[in-house]
Amino acid sequence: MGPTILAIESSCDETSAAVIKNGKVLNNIIATQSVHENYGGVVPELASRAHQQNIVPVVAEALKNTGIDKRELDAVAFTQGPGLLGALLVGTSFAKSMALGLDIPLIGVNHMQAHILAHFIDDPKPGFPFLCLTVSGGHTQIVLVKDHLDMEVVGETMDDAVGEAFDKSAKLLGLPYPGGPLIDKYAREGDPHRFSFPDSEVEGLNFSFSGIKTAFLYFLRDEKKKDENFIEKNLNDICASLQYSLIRMLLLRLEKASTRYGIDQIALAGGVSANYGLREALTRMAKTRNWNFYIPDFEYCTDNAAMIAITAHFKYLKKEFSSLRVSSEARMKF
After folding, report:
1. Which end of the chain is more exposed for a tag (fewer CB within 10 A), N or C?
2. Whole-model pTM?
């Protein structure tokens, strides 16, 4: 019999809680914060306040939904980073207080590791070793996954993440936040070869997206000088061409990594893995390259507590617990 664990995710603008029992995720409750739409991006202070408002009802719903009493829990897990400091603090404080009150272990989980282990929530599951392209608003990585808790980053962005490139480009197009999904939507109706944008020359398996963002900015500036309605007239083709260029940058490195390590088990994870264009392009490449290709269900691609729960399950089995103590240094600061 495996442990029963409550997991909490609060790294950015989603307050989420999930319960896992015997390695099976029983639910995945998510409260989305809409307040940020008015500001064109996530406002850290507003995110923290929303987490404070949401965390009690979300956790209560997660437990009620499964019929599990809090006294039946074997551990409480939480996202310890990376993420927004204030947002993480809400989840960390709640999880630690609950673990202390119930006298059960506390399990801190790395957010990016959890995105990768979302592949182990449902079947089919990748075999080891596999390569995972992990793409989100804050990270872009190629990770060599040797075991559930044994991973090595073999390629990463040197500046901006691909998710940020999508959202910042969308803002330049005048699209509302979050703009990345809208670029994906309009791209389906456009010509991906109408316009071209440059790749960045970076060593090895690393990425750089700052160059294409700058090129896109100047491209729009120059075209709007010729026709002030350029964006409105060509929105679908602009989105399709930009998305094609960003996806091409991702796939070139991933293909290179597959060849270098001789691995044909390939996975996709992170918030940007919900992008239809990326999923389709990778599916086509997998067929061409004879890869065994894996993508989590859509609800496990964006930030969620289910991925925190499955990671905590594996950490519990290895007794990798976090400290409940407050250090003497921390006490002095108070």
Report:
1. C
2. 0.92
CB 170 within 8 A of CB 182: yes
Q: How far apart are CA 19 and CA 77, in angstroms?
A: 10
Between β-strands 4-9 and 14-21, what pairing exists: parallel, antiparallel or unpaired? Answer: antiparallel
All residues at 6 or more sequence positions from 165 whose CB lies less than 8 Å from its CB, including other chains: 209, 212, 213, 246
- Per-residue pLDDT 10s for the chain (334 aa) are 789 999 999 998 889 999 999 999 999 999 976 655 665 667 778 888 988 999 999 999 999 999 999 999 999 999 999 999 999 999 999 999 999 999 999 999 999 999 999 999 999 999 999 999 999 888 999 999 999 999 999 999 999 999 999 999 999 999 998 899 999 999 999 999 999 999 987 889 999 999 999 999 999 999 999 999 999 999 999 999 999 999 999 999 999 999 999 999 999 999 899 999 999 999 999 999 999 999 999 899 989 999 999 999 999 999 999 987 644 333 333 2
Fold of 4-116+302-333: Nucleotidyltransferase; domain 5 (3.30.420)
Domain positions in the chain are: 4-116+302-333, 124-295
